[in-house]
Design a protein that fits this description.
The protein is of the alpha/beta class. It is built from eight helices and 13 strands.
Amino acid sequence: MKAAYRLSDIIDDYSALFCDVWGVIRDGRALLPDAITALQKARDAGRSVVLVSNSPRPAGDLAHQLARMGAPDNAWDAIVTSGDATQQALRELAPGPFFKIGPPGRDDQLYDGLDLEFVEAEAARAIVCTGPTQEFGWEPEDYRSLFESLVARDLPMVCANPDIVVQVGDDLVWCAGALARLYREIGGTSIISGKPHKPIYELAYAALEAKGWQGGRSTVLAIGDGPETDIAGAQRMEIDALFIGDGILGRDIAGSDLDAVRDALAAFDVRADWFAPRLIW
């Protein structure tokens, strides 16, 4: 791994970027202007940019959310989300019935047009999880007794957001991936289509090609702050990765010390090709 404190230092080696959202271009509360500028400059230099997010919402909804936050319309070419990739898994299990776990009403756009049936846990044949029912003040272990009863009935869990945690301002917040991990540890089956798994990356390549991109897959750079999602996914897809340190591992990394970064990533059994504290041009 080498330091690449500016995207402009390494951009000549790549034709396209797969860029994470939470922890890279926004901190969970606000957009990060320098990161937005970096993506704009990359596009000005002729590179294609796809936002690849583990958001459980469809891409269009995420685009509207970013626009409401003040994002410009010229910083990326396309957006793909875990929600997009998850919809196919839900279609294969439709109509369910599903037991739904997630913040009430917040991610319901995921289910638009899928004709799914939702029931209480006792009547379900499958589970769909977009996240915890509340944002703060809970731990994955709070769900253990519920999950034990669901695993005993051999119900599969469709996890719409594989992230374990995300950055929200100065806080780290548990995500659906943490619940899916616990479900597997208890003995259950989880179905995950977002990062680090292949389906979301195939959507990203399709989005690139729809925009006329003709570069080789080896010329794509993944940018992200999640060791278990962004960096692990890049390794699985055999593309280079730029790890952003000032994200979910920001508290564990001492400044820009490369040895500290390597050690932090090694704890997750992953490695990155490049490191930068923040995404800047």
